[in-house]
Structure formats: C-alpha cells, structure tokens
Amino acid sequence: MHLKTPEHQVAGHIAKDGKPGPLVDDKGRFFKPLQGESRGDNEVKFYESFSSNTEVPDHIRRYFPVYHGTQAVEGSDGASMIVLENLLFKYSKPSVMDVKMGSRTWYPEASEEYIQKCLRKDAASTTVSSGFRISGFEVYDHKELSFWKPDRKLLNGIKVDGVRLALRKFVSSNTLSETSSKSDSAFASSVYGGSNGILAQLLELKTWFESQTFYHFNSCSILMVYENDSILEGNVDDARPQVKLVDFAHVLDSDGNGVIDHNFLGGLCSFINFIRDILQSQDESSAENLHSSP
Amino acid sequence: MHLKTPEHQVAGHIAKDGKPGPLVDDKGRFFKPLQGESRGDNEVKFYESFSSNTEVPDHIRRYFPVYHGTQAVEGSDGASMIVLENLLFKYSKPSVMDVKMGSRTWYPEASEEYIQKCLRKDAASTTVSSGFRISGFEVYDHKELSFWKPDRKLLNGIKVDGVRLALRKFVSSNTLSETSSKSDSAFASSVYGGSNGILAQLLELKTWFESQTFYHFNSCSILMVYENDSILEGNVDDARPQVKLVDFAHVLDSDGNGVIDHNFLGGLCSFINFIRDILQSQDESSAENLHSSP
C-alpha cells in the first residue's frame, strides 16, 4: 500500500513533533490519525454510530465522508488510523475551504481548561459574531495558474468583512494574493448557485438540522470543494461543487433528550445568508451590466 | 389617569426597594420603568428605531408591542417610563409564559462583569443546552378555577425534561400543582396548533430571522399568551393564542455588518422543535384512542 501526504489539506492536524499526519492512498482513501485525549476514540465512536444509524436518510448521508473502519498503518509507527473516503480524490485542481461551524466550539461536558481555550478563540475569531469561522482555504488562481493559500495566522485575525471577502475570493478568477484588486466572484453562480450548488446543498442540510436530535456536532467543520480543471477548459458549469461535514472528535450523542443542535443550525443559517448575499449582489451587478449595455 | 400594578406579570422587574415597577392604565397601555445603567435608554433607542423602520414588514410588526413613546408618570416619583401596548389588555383569564431566547444572553460588547454573570446563569439553566430558558409562567387551572404560578426559584433549576413538562402544563386542563399527575395537554392543538396558533406564528418569525440583519436581540423574550375564558365557555377554538417579543434593553443594531441574529434564530428553531414534539405526540395519542375505540 503506497501512502502519501495529502496535497490540499487546508485545516486540521498535520505531521508534527514525530506525530503522524493524515495520509492518502491511490484508491481514494484518506487515513486520519486518532487524536489524543480520547478525541480519536470519540471520533471513531461517532463514525461507528453514524454509519449504522438507519434513521439518517441517504440524501443526508452523502454530506458525510464514507467510513471504512480503523486500520493500523505501516510506516506510521503502526498507529491506528481512521480510514475514510478521500473527499478530494476525484478533483484534479480543487479549491477547498474549511469552515468551523457554531457560535461556540465548547460544550458544557468538556473540561474547564478546554472551555476557556475555546471561549478565547471564539471571541477572537468570527465564531461568536457570525456563528462560524473560516479555518483555512486554498484557491486555484486562474491568472497565476497555481494554488493560493493564505497563512493561517492571517486567517485567525479576520473579522466579518474579511470573511465576506474570503467567500468572494473563493469563487473569483482574479489574482488572489492582491488584496487591492476587487474580487470578481466570476464563478459564484456556478459554484454557490444552481440546483446542485453549494447553497442548495446547505439548504438541504439545514432542513435536516431543524429536526435531527441524534447528534450535537460541536466544533465540526463544513468543507466546500469545487473543480477548477473544467473551468480552465471553458466549462464553468461542470465545477462539481460539494459540501461535506468533517471533524467529529467533539460530537456528542444527544442522549435522547430530543434537543436539536441549535448551535450548529444557527451558524449554518448565518453562513447560508453570507452565500446568498454574494449570489444576490452578483444578480444585481449582472442586471446593471445589462442596463448599461448599448 | 388611574394606574395600577399589572395582574399577570410572570417575569422581569417588579417594584422593589423604592424603585417603581411596571403599571397599566384602563385604556390598554403598559408603563415600563426605564432600567438602570443605560439599559432603559437602550430600550427606548430600540423602540424608536423599530417603530420608524419602514423595512420591517407589517406581518412581523404585529409580533412586537406597539410603542407610544416615553412619559413622566405621576405618583411614581415623576420617573420617565416607556409607554407600550398592554399585551394582556384584551384577555380576561390569560395563561402567560415568558421564554428567554438564545443559547447565550451575553454579547461581546458588554462589560466583563455582565458577561460572567450571564455565562453562569446560561450554564445553570437550559439556555446553553436548549437555546432558550423559561423565565416565568402563569397558567389558569381549569380544575381549581384559579391561576397557578410556579416559584421563580423552582423554575431556575429546571433542565430539559422540566422545560418539556412546563410546555405541556401550559396547555393542560389538569390540576397543575400536582407534579405526579400526567399533563393531558388538552389544549395543545388549539393553542400550539392550527393556522393561527403559536407554532404557525413562530414559523413566521423564523422566516424573518433567517434574513433580517437590522437587530441582534440579545437577552430578549418571547411571550406566549392565550385566553381561558372562551375555553371555560366550551369554545376551545377561540383561545386567541399570541406570540410577542418583549424586553429590548440589550438589543444591538447590527451596524450594517449584514450578519443575521443566529443566536436568537438557533434558539427559536430549538423552541419550535419542542412545540412540534408536543403536537406530534398529541396526534399519536389521538390516533391510538381512535384505534382502541370499539
């Protein structure tokens, strides 16, 4: 089995201080090391529960990575890893963004130390103000013909305006490193809009979150991805935008108390409103162009 | 002008330590003292802004008390009061519940002392877990022919199960002080259900909150009320259930940053799910009765 480091990881843990990072094989599988302090065990517990939960409808299941169990991996000190679907396997030039959902990333059952750490990060980022924060992204730059990835420290400090700009950059054809240039959001309607676009997928997830009481998705992320290869070939409408939920180390069963995950849902509604705003401003500028044409 | 203490106040400030409490007149107006530490001024600011905001649609405006300005009130040390519509004026035997919305009642702009105080209350109540907490209620007891109002200290300690029970008691015909008796939820379909019921009104509010970015309703309450007189006269379907938003001392303008109030909205979605659960369990027990009848 030939394993290598994934090319387009935008957030989450990486190989560091002798600890293994995630790996991918050439058959479309993603190997995720178990995190410390029972987080890894908790994530396995979630995947086991979710993959056998017959009450999760198929149209919702497709927003989660396929789970292939756990496996001891050679060359990685024989450590046990979670084996998942490699979400980027079928994309050759993917733009990717990781958005951590919820207006709080802590939960009452966690340790006091963890809660305080989360509270500080939540207040310093857009988590409290906007109900989500951008953890990382990588965009294919159509002018430079290369990938552009902002520094994580740069991202940590952004406020609401920065989030709005990042969500525009994510679907723009301009050179992205130039902060002065106005993002053209050229691919907004193809990626965010349409019956199979990001917005439509988010709305489908929202409907499920309005009634599901199985899980509380603390500190989970929404991963957005689309293909740039087809756009380069002139086929903008074949961008295959996709939403996936990832990172379940802090998911809790609701223990049958029947309460929905209002923390994730509130953040999701806010995120939806950001995406909808971009689509609407695109519509307006198209209408303006139409009116100003001779 | 003859002013008196309102009969059915279930939460909020009352006359205490020489400070005036709220008053009502015989023409359907409610006089609310301005709270200290700029909270009163902030509430007036909200009412002035909201009542002149032409972008709030009429079908949403009806969920807010009508605002009649401020007025110095005689016999109350000449203190200035906010003059509002008396929401209970047209009800003779109202059942009333005050539900404080949101999974947090604090906001980053507040003082550190206020934030810490809120955090403690939020974690001790169902605010963090359920996205709302019951601040108070008063129910007309159809067996005892009198009003029943749980002690505020009793309410402070209730968890998710207690909330569920309170929401059933609120629409039940049994004697309410007996904790052993099972609430029959006899009026659930008339009060919570139907095209003009509580659930329909909450869903209308939810739609507005999914896109409104004018105000962030920190520490606001939803007041639910219905009439028992008509039920006593055998007309269950004339209960006139009504949802109103109250308490705007901590409302903030969103300063045009375009973010929805995801904190209120998440809690509202959770509250809607509690109400919907009660209606569904009523449907199921009706269906069972139907099947078991000869």
From TrEMBL, chains A, B:
Main function: Inositol phosphate kinase with a broad substrate specificity.
PANTHER family: INOSITOL POLYPHOSPHATE KINASE, INOSITOL POLYPHOSPHATE MULTIKINASE ALPHA
Coiled-coil residue spans: none
Keyword flag Kinase: yes
Name of the molecule in the record: Inositol polyphosphate multikinase
Family per record: Belongs to the inositol phosphokinase (IPK) family.
GO biological process terms on file: inositol phosphate biosynthetic process
Keyword presence, Kinase: yes
Catalytic activity: 1D-myo-inositol 1,4,5-trisphosphate + 2 ATP = 1D-myo-inositol 1,3,4,5,6-pentakisphosphate + 2 ADP + 2 H(+); 1D-myo-inositol 1,3,4,6-tetrakisphosphate + ATP = 1D-myo-inositol 1,3,4,5,6-pentakisphosphate + ADP + H(+)
A Pfam family assignment: IPK
Enzyme class, UniProt record, top EC level: transferase
UniProt-annotated stretches for the region Disordered: 1-22
Entry keywords, A to Z: ATP-binding, Kinase, Nucleotide-binding, Transferase
Organism whose genome encodes this protein: Microthlaspi erraticum
GO MF annotation: an example: inositol-1,4,5-trisphosphate 3-kinase activity
GO cellular component: cytoplasm; nucleus
EC number: 2.7.1.140, 2.7.1.151
